[in-house]
Design brief:
The protein is mostly helical. It has a domain of about 170 residues: MetI-like fold, CATH 1.10.3720. The protein is built from 26 helices and 2 strands. Strands 1-2 form a two-stranded parallel sheet.
């Protein structure tokens, strides 16, 4: 009897998903929805202008974008890697202070740096005015000066703003290397350049590649900087085709090109690593001991590190402080306080929702451990790679359709017209922030969960704690620092985000970033300076927290 029953096929028992699994799937669906929306709109346009785009503007947009990316990649890699090598391998005047100060440009939005550089170097700016006064020149025909609103200047500004991504990762890679390798190389007669080319560069190459990839993602996503310099990229093409040409399908098709470009960039970064793995010899491996530079060369090292710091931080901050001091009434200008309040509320709530959703998703996937839902985790990183303009397009059209259906339904049931409850308020903007920066929160939270021993949660569950109780009593107290850091970083990124804010903000709704953009676009930089300084101050707080969290 038992043998006969043993031969019967076993029935697979399907269990209904619980609230944690359902919630994780819903969060992932919200994050992925704009990308899927872009694909649908691009493949089903109401008016197919793809042949027209290919024959006219798309080659120019793509070519300029590729040139911009190539320039930023080379310059940001040179500045970030060079500065990281100097502060990690050598001791020179100001080295300890510069090690953290080189991160400060992360607090400066690239578009603010663009406004500052053009104001300083333009024909009516102080530099050219001083040259005309000193040499007696009367017009631009009397002398040659580099064109300020050009592609090379855009590359310079974006490189100054984005090199900290390379610097941060490269410095960490250099610090984690074993000092014995460098001692052996020096004993064999390797000089400074040979040490860098034969040991430093190969061992840090994966980290440098990751930093350059992050910088290039931000380059492709940029709108304010390239617009101010008159550089036509794929992102400006999305704005032009959608807003000026009133063709959402064409804008979605250009957005599809951007997404393909981003995916290719991520693939090249992964391939560039070549599957290489570098490990320290052991827990007691000797750390790298910085070498003291003597003579004039020590000041050369200080000067080289000051170049990116000056261009990325001192220049924009200095220009905005001068304009703010020249017109102190700008701090009391109408609209500034309202823009500050809107920024704090929307960015603060968006950061809370984003990090909270990341905690829920990561905990649910870790707790269930089901392979069927584990694939959700890497997919939710796609939002961070997509530019704000692309996400705004992917969100606005479906949300607008949903908004109208909700309003019509409520009107039919109650006789009251609620208006546009999603796209007519800051809800759509907050949702765009969540999708755009969910990858940052998820990465920080996932790393924090990984540092908590699984035995602690198992002990809590064995003592009768529920899943939510274990999260509140065990994980969150141990992850408090990482969660707060994620909140701060997401908040600052929301404050600085410009393209998505321009496209999704409600009518007559300004944030600090849009106020800076609008006033600077009208050449009213003195009025834009207070808002720009507030944005930079918020960003600087996050950078200081990041700097303090780095090992010495």
């Amino acid at each position: 009897m038992s043998d006969r029953f043993a031969q019967l096929p076993r029935r697979r028992i399907w269990s209904l998903p619980d609230a944690w699994t359902i919630g994780a799937v819903l969060i992932a669906a919200v994050v992925l929805a704009p990308i899927l929306s872009i694909a649908w709109i691009a493949l089903n346009p109401t008016e197919n202008i793809w042949p027209h785009l290919i024959a006219t503007v798309l080659p120019r947009y793509l070519g300029t974008t590729l040139l911009l990316m190539a320039g930023v990649a080379g310059l940001s890699a040179a500045m970030g890697t060079g500065a990281a090598w100097l502060v990690s391998q050598y001791r020179f005047p100001g080295r300890d202070w510069l090690a953290n100060a080189l991160l400060f440009p992360l607090a400066i939005p690239a578009y603010v740096g663009a406004y500052a550089l053009v104001d300083l170097l333009d024909y009516a700016g102080p530099v050219q005015s001083a040259l005309r006064s000193a040499f007696g020149w009367t017009s631009a025909r009397d002398y040659w000066f580099p064109e300020t609103r050009s592609l090379p200047m855009a590359i310079l500004v974006l490189s100054f703003a984005l090199y900290p991504y390379v610097y941060l990762l490269a410095r960490s890679a250099y610090r984690e290397q074993s000092g014995r390798a460098y001692e052996v190389a020096r004993a064999l007669g390797c000089g400074p350049w040979a040490l860098f080319l034969r040991i430093g560069w190969p061992l840090a190459r994966p980290a440098i590649a990751a930093g350059v990839a992050l910088a290039l993602m931000e380059t492709v996503a940029d709108y304010g900087t390239v617009l101010h310099f008159g550089v036509q990229t794929l992102t400006t093409g999305v704005f032009s085709t959608w807003l000026n040409g009133s063709n959402a399908g064409g804008a979605a098709q250009i957005s599809g090109v951007i997404l393909v470009l981003i995916l290719m960039l991520v693939g090249l970064e992964r391939a560039g690593r070549g599957g290489a793995r570098f490990h320290r010899l052991g827990r007691n491996a000797q750390p790298v001991e910085p070498v003291v530079i003597v003579g004039r060369k020590r000041w050369y090292a200080t000067g080289l590190c000051l170049i990116p710091f000056t261009g990325g931080f001192l220049l924009p901050v200095g220009v905005m402080l001068v304009h703010s001091a020249a017109a102190p009434g700008g701090w009391l200008a109408p609209g500034l306080l309202e823009a500050l309040q809107n920024t704090l509320v929307v960015a603060g709530l968006s950061a809370l929702v984003t990090v909270g959703a990341a905690v829920f998703l990561v905990y649910a996937l870790r707790m269930k451990g089901s392979r069927a839902v584990q694939w959700l985790l890497p997919l939710t990183l796609v939002g961070y790679a997509a530019p704000g303009a692309v996400l705004a397009l992917g969100l606005l059209l479906p949300l607008a359709a949903l908004d109208h259906r909700l309003a019509d339904g409520i009107l039919a049931l109650t006789g009251w017209d609620p208006g546009l409850m999603i796209t007519g308020t800051a809800v759509a903007l907050g949702l765009a922030y969540m999708v755009r920066f969910f990858g940052i929160a998820q990465g920080a939270v996932d790393a924090a969960f990984g540092r908590v021993s699984p035995s602690l949660s198992m002990a809590a569950r064995s003592l009768g704690r529920s899943a939510s109780g274990t999260l509140a009593a065990v994980y969150l107290p141990l992850m408090r620092g990482s969660v707060l850091t994620a909140l701060l970083v997401v908040f600052v990124d929301c404050v600085k985000e410009l393209p998505a804010t321009l496209l999704l903000r409600p009518f007559n709704f300004n944030t600090l970033s849009t106020r800076v953009f609008e006033l600077a676009s009208l050449e009213r930089l003195s009025e834009a300076a207070p808002a720009a300084l507030l944005v930079m101050a918020v960003g600087l707080v996050a950078v200081l927290v990041l700097a303090r969290s780095q090992p010495d």
